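Moderator note: this is an archived Q&A kept for reference. The question asked for a predicted structure of one protein chain; the sequence and the answer are reproduced below.
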Amino acid sequence: MKKIPVVVVLLVSLVATSSAQANFQGGGKKPSEAATIGWGQHYVGELDNHKENANYLSAGGYEVSFWRVPAVSTRDQLVVNWQSVPTKSGSFPVYMYFVQGVNDSNWGELFERRERGFELSGSGTAASSVTVQDSDAGGSSYLEFVSRASTGVGEGTQETFQYNFTVEQPRHYLSMTLAPFTEVPANGIVSASVTKSDGSPAPDGLTFGLTVRWTGGGTATYTGTSAGGNVAFQLALPESVYKKSASFIGGRGADGEYQAVETPVTRAKVSEPPPPPAPPVVKKPLHKACKKAKSRVRVIGRLYHRTAAHWQEARGIERVKLHRRARTLHAKLRRAKARAKVACA
């Protein structure tokens, strides 16, 4: 006799579960039953206001549908394009939440502490943007589609609400910082560092922009490409900005893979470019006539200095002869130097 109530309870429980599953389409009634979505794929689900189908029983009852989100990183941006049908009174009963760190045992407790979710209005279509708080390799991040389920049989109008959605590929977070400077030449280089949400360098090959503005409405833009987490912008500012203060802002627009990023404004003085370095002195190659003339200067020069040295030491008639010889060589040396100057010009 003691077994009979247990059997009855079990049968009632099974019937209720079967009925709930029959009226519940898409997603899962708890995290472990959730299907994993694919980026860009279209999904359709169905909720209702039937009290007997509620899977969250507090606060009058709610029907919650879970869809598991693939791997995401901290500060990723998810855009959920979704829509639903209104009630007969014209309101939109389906809400959407993005949750992390939930499982079968704690989802109800977290749902009880939920903040206001995403809602629909007007046409019943929305593109809701979600910023991921924690990195997740896949398994504990979910979309929850929710409707009130507080209308029992015979207590009012029981309705069914279809919804559908697509989740775009996550746009990853980037951080960009200009290297500090208070003055820069008009043809100088402005550098910036670019990192991902985990602090690692941004991928190579991403294009970033630098906008420079100065008094009088002047504007100049430059581009640079990331390499090793750094970007260099080569300036070529006009003379009109010399000795003026200018504002510098780096950034990049959003695309299908990364979010938009913009640096804080840096204000700095623009100085005149330094003078170009003097061109290197290029020695002309010596042609044949020049080489011959210089060689003759060296030969005569050696003879002259040798003769002059002997003349200083000689005595008598020998001294007179060497003196005369030295004078002759000195004259030849002057003529040889003159010819070499002309030949090597």
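Archived answer notes: The chain has three domains: 3-167, 174-271, 288-343.
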